[in-house]
Amino acid sequence: MKERRVAVLGLARSGTALSLALRDRGVEVCAGDRKPLSEIPSAAHLAERGVKLHTGGPDMAMLDGVELLAVSPGVPGNSPVMGEARRRAIPVLPEFEVAWRILEEESTGRNRYAAVTGSNGKSTVASWLADALRRAGRPVVLAGNIGTALSGFCADKSPRDFVVELSSFQLETIAKFRPDVAIVTNITPDHLDRHGSLEAYAAAKARIFENQSGEDASVVNEDDPISRALSPAGRIGFSRQRTVPGGVSVEGGAIVSRVGGAERAVLPMAELGLPGIHNLENALAVVAAADALGVEPAPVADSLREFPGLPHRCRTIARIGGVEWVDDSKGTNPDAVVKSLAGFPPGTVLLILGGSDKGSDFRPLAPEVERAARIVFTIGQSAQKIEAALPGADVRRAGDLARAVATAAGEARPGETVLLSPACASFDQYANFEERGRHFAQLVGKVAEGSHGA
């Protein structure tokens, strides 16, 4: 790091990890957060390490004399501190890019980076790709938006493969970050409350490619028109609908790869471990990225068969009296819900929708909801907007998750599925989608206890 005085904005996991990594390198750090000091768990440790804290709201003094502002992923794009930094001509970078620069400067060998973004599936693709790399015996780190900040790995200087999940929030302020493999799973309307338009949101996602050269690989969903229009350098397409020259396709009941030129059958579709159209698309992205990284075929095939999936993503949590209960709390936009519903027979789903609105248009839900859902229960802030978008569905206002689960338990018939796939963020009633999913599981557990008692 040539900068010797850096400001860090946001003191959740990412900002804390970067502040400590910078202090380890003798950098003077001023760190700010809108929360009061009492609500920042790492505050005492940061202060002990010499980090100067500016808490309790926007404090422009944290920018005095700094050479760089590093921003945590949860900081809103209209942050007054970011605006003031730009007014003062202070460079603004995302936390992960500062960490990437440290890793590149200090590593004892060559690191490789696979960066994953997209509206849906990015966590699954990142985790699945990391699993394939581990099975191949490659030293691998899974980092970024999925939970562990890239800054948390700066102490280890050994060369590794980094699989980094990145959100549009993280990508919109990059400068030089250049992944060896960049993956866009899909781009559908999401976070429009932050970006203002689908075009601006797509442009933020597309920044994952902007520093790549012909030596790098860009993995793109050819079935998604917005992703397909990006046309990055080193493009490797994947499709479940058609053959992709030089890419990965579904042909004759099998996943087939032509990455690198030679054609090979990767795995029969019947052996794919995770169900659903969305997971087939995720698997195709994993194969394309793994081939671009030079991973041997056998461990990739083993991973496709055996990877268990992630919590809160179309995962069955109980079967009670012939009724299946499925947690898809991570289904936080309409496109995710449409793909989840596609795997169910007509009229067999009791669907729970709602939460905090991210500016989504819920009308695209209507055809698939009306096909697959017998009853829709709405919860949270966006309930009325969702109800207006589904005029042909049997929609009932539940208000909150507890009431939705209790009502669904009384309405569901053997052979049906109660599906939590909200099409919304969780922040009106929960801290995050994980907390919402855990609460759903707890409520379903009480349904199970009641059925045993009966």
Explain this structure.
The protein is built from 16 helices and 20 strands. The N and C termini lie far apart (65 Å). The protein has helices spanning 13-24, 43-48, 80-87, 95-106, 122-135, 168-171, 192-195, 198-206, 225-228, 277-292, 297-306, 334-341, 366-372, 383-389, 401-411, 433-453; strands at 5-9, 28-33, 52-55, 68-71, 92-94, 112-117, 140-144, 161-165, 181-184, 217-221, 235-239, 248-251, 254-257, 264-268, 315-320, 323-327, 349-354, 373-379, 395-399, 417-420. By secondary structure, it is of the alpha/beta class. The mean pLDDT is 94.
Topology (SSEs and partners):
Blueprint: E1 5-9, H1 13-24, E2 28-33, H2 43-48, E3 52-55, E4 68-71, H3 80-87, E5 92-94, H4 95-106, E6 112-117, H5 122-135, E7 140-144, E8 161-165, H6 168-171, E9 181-184, H7 192-195, H8 198-206, E10 217-221, H9 225-228, E11 235-239, E12 248-251, E13 254-257, E14 264-268, H10 277-292, H11 297-306, E15 315-320, E16 323-327, H12 334-341, E17 349-354, H13 366-372, E18 373-379, H14 383-389, E19 395-399, H15 401-411, E20 417-420, H16 433-453
Parallel strand pairs: 1-2, 1-4, 2-3, 4-5, 6-8, 6-9, 7-8, 9-10, 10-11, 11-12, 16-20, 17-18, 17-20, 18-19
Antiparallel strand pairs: 12-13, 13-14, 15-16
Helix pairs in contact: 1-4, 5-10, 5-11, 15-16
